């Protein structure tokens, strides 16, 4: 018997909620809601007393799994390493399948973000690239080509 019913969402903590939201919306995610969260529930779940965060929920087109962006009002956010490479232990990247990889990468770069390495091809089936978004968020973009 499995305990998991379905994959629901990935949570990402950021300082600038608007900038991070704009980044994911530019990739094609859709904002489902934005709200502050505080009180006994969140204090219990995250084990940080008197916390307050604002969250934005984003869904991929057509539904499925979501991205939850969270920005702490209190306590202050604690910086991680925004330049962490793929071999750093922890959450490595958020992955999305895109329609046109080159167009998606060009749009991200035009918005001031960066391509981490280059665009690679895997066995004539996938074309993929890592891009670094706001606050160092690493995003894997992949296009099925075969």
UniProtKB/TrEMBL annotation:
Highest taxon, organism lineage: Bacteria
Coiled coil segments of this chain: none
InterPro entries per UniProt: Glyas_Bleomycin-R_OHBP_Dase, MMCE/EMCE_epimerase, VOC_core
Gene3D superfamilies: 2,3-Dihydroxybiphenyl 1,2-Dioxygenase, domain 1 (3.10.180.10)
Domain VOC residues, every copy: 6-144
SUPFAM superfamilies (UniProt xref): Glyoxalase/Bleomycin resistance protein/Dihydroxybiphenyl dioxygenase
UniProt keywords, alphabetically: Metal-binding
Pfam families in the record: Glyoxalase_4 (PF13669)
Membrane spanning stretches: none
Record protein name field: VOC family protein
Organism annotation: Nocardioides renjunii
């Amino acid at each position: 018997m499995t305990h998991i019913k379905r994959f629901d969402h990935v949570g990402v903590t950021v300082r600038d909620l608007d900038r991070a939201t704009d980044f994911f919306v530019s990739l094609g995610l859709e904002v489902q809601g934005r709200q502050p969260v505080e009180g006994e529930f969140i204090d219990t779940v995250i084990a940080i007393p008197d916390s307050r965060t604002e969250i934005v929920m984003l869904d991929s087109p057509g539904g499925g799994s979501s991205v939850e962006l969270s920005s702490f009002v209190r306590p202050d956010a604690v910086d991680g390493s925004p330049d962490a490479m793929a071999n750093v232990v922890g959450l490595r990247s958020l992955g999305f399948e895109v329609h046109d990889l080159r167009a998606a990468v060009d749009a991200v770069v035009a918005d001031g973000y960066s391509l981490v390495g280059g665009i690679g091809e895997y066995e004539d089936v996938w074309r993929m690239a890592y891009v670094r978004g706001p606050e160092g968020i690493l995003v894997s973009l992949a296009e099925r080509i075969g």
